[in-house]
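JOB MANIFEST
job_type = single_chain_structure
chain_count = 1
residues = 429
[input]
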Amino acid sequence: MTGLYDDLLLRGFVYQCTDEKAVRNLLDSGHAVFYVGFDPTADSLHAGSLIPILAMMHLQKAGHKPIAVLGSGTAMVGDPSGKTEMRKMLIEDIIRANAVHLRSQLSRFLVLDGNAGIWVDNATWLRDLNYIDFLRDVGRHFSVNKMLAAESYKIRLESGLSFLEFNYMLLQSYDFYVLARDHGCLLQMGGQDQWGNIVAGADLVRRMTGADAHGLTFPLLTDASGNKLGKTVAGAVWLSAEKTAPFDFYQYWRNTEDRDVERFLKLFTFLPVDECVRLGRLEPPALNRAKEILGFEITRIVHGDAAAAQAYLAAAAHYPSADPDGKIETSSTIRSPAAGRTDSATSADLPEAIVPRDKAAAGIRVAELIVLAGFAPSNGEAKRLIQQGGIRLGETPITDVGASASADTLAASPILRAGKKRMVRLVVR
C-alpha cells in the first residue's frame, strides 16, 4: 500500500518539492496543515484550478487540514508569474465580489468549517500593513539578486516588470509566514509557475519562526496536442454552471484525446490508480467508454450526481457509444455510466442558447447563432468554423458563411451542432 505522497506522485500531481523526504513524511503523517492560494481575478475558477483543488481534496480525505487562501490583497497587486505582460488591474469592489463567488465554489469541494479546514482572505493582514515596518521586518530577508533569478521575474525583465508586481513575491511569502505563525501551516502548494514564490515563502518562514516549512508544486498541464488545459475555441472551461453548462463541461472531458485518457483519469477522478491505468489503456472503440467515465466522474465532482447523469444521458442520446453493451466496469463508489444506461434523454436535456425573438423574426445569421451557442468567440471565428465544415442546423449542413435562419427554421430545427460532439438547443425567447 502506497502512502499519500507516493499516490500523488503516481497520479501526476507532483512537479517539484523543496525536500522530497521531508514532504513525504509530512503528508504520510496524516495531520499536517497546508495551504493553496486563489487570487479572485475572476468570478469563477476554471478547469486548470481543478489540479490544486483535487490535490487539496486528496489531502483532506487523508486527514490533513486545508487552508484555502482567497487573495483579495495580492489580487490588488497582480501576480506576474506565467504572464508576459502586466495583468489588468481590478477595482476593489470587483475583487471582493469575485472572492465571495470563489469562497462558495471552494466550499463545494472542501470542508471549510473552521475545524476540518478553514478559509482566510489575505486582505485581512495585507491591507493594513505599515510599509516602512514591512520593509524593515520582512524585506530585509530578501535578496534582489535571487528574486531576479526567479523564472517568473526573468521572463518579464525584457518586456517590463513594474515595481508593483515586483512586490508580489514578498506579499505571498508574508502570507506563508502569517499562516505558519497563526495556524501552524508548514506546507504551501501551487502551480509550477509559483515555485519561486513558494520557495521564498518557505525560506521566510524558516528565517522568521525557525520552523521547517516546505513547498510542493503541480504541473501546469497541456493536452497531448500542446493546448493549455481548459482552453477551447469559445474560451475557458469554467467551474461555474452559469459560465460553462454542465453538458459542455462533460463534453469537454468526453472529447479528451486518446493519449490523455489515462493521465486525466489519474488526476481528475478518485478511481484507484490501477483502474485508471486499465481504463486508459483500452483500445478504441472501447476507449470511448473510458472517456465517458472520465467525463461523468469529473462532472459529478464539480456539478453533482444529478447534473453529471443528465449530461451523460443527453450526450448518450445523441452520440451512441461505440461500446453499447457497457461491459467495462468501474469501482467508483458512485454508479458510473460504464455500468450501462438506465434512462433516456431528449434534446430538452441539452444546454440552451437564447435567441432574441426580434432577431429570429428578422432572420438571424448562422454565424451569430454559433457565437450565441458559445462555439466561437466572434463572428469571424464562427465563419471560419462554417468554412471548415461540421456546422449543422438540425440535419442541414451549413456551408455558406452568410446563411441565415428564420424563426420557423429554428422552431423546426432547434439543434445547432459544431463537429461531432458539441451541440446546443436554440430557444427563441
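[summary]
The longest strand covers residues 422-428.
The radius of gyration is 24 Å.
exit_status = 0
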